[in-house]
Amino acid sequence: MTPRRWIGALLLTVLVGGCAPTRAPTDQVTITFHxxxxxxxxxxxxxxxxxxxxxxxxxxxxxxxxVGPPALHQVHRxxxxxxxxxxxxxxxxxxxxxxxxxxVFDQLGEIDYICHLPGHEEYGMKGTVTVVPNDGxxxxx
Length: 141
What we know:
alpha+beta, Immunoglobulin-like, 4-stranded mixed sheet, 19% helix
């Protein structure tokens, strides 16, 4: 392969590989907690639809999954609650446990999910839900 073709092939690979495919919205999401990170760290869901989240903590330490607007995250950064129960958008998980929750997102746009246990957010334990219009494939509540 000539240097010019090699460079062209390399550029094409970088350009195509760097373009993340658009994720189709889903109403069933599994998020795994491993090495104090969320996988996936980006999900796309339809607006106005009950979205079922399965949260799997594969770490030997507790974590939490808080999804909501910036004001909610600011409150949780002060550590006002040691354990979360009873609210679908605020879930605590013991080590090596799984929990299910259902959340409806009414506002279009991006909303963060974060673990606010000491140091976890700074370490990178955060993700984003992108809420898009319901294209009619999903039943609304």
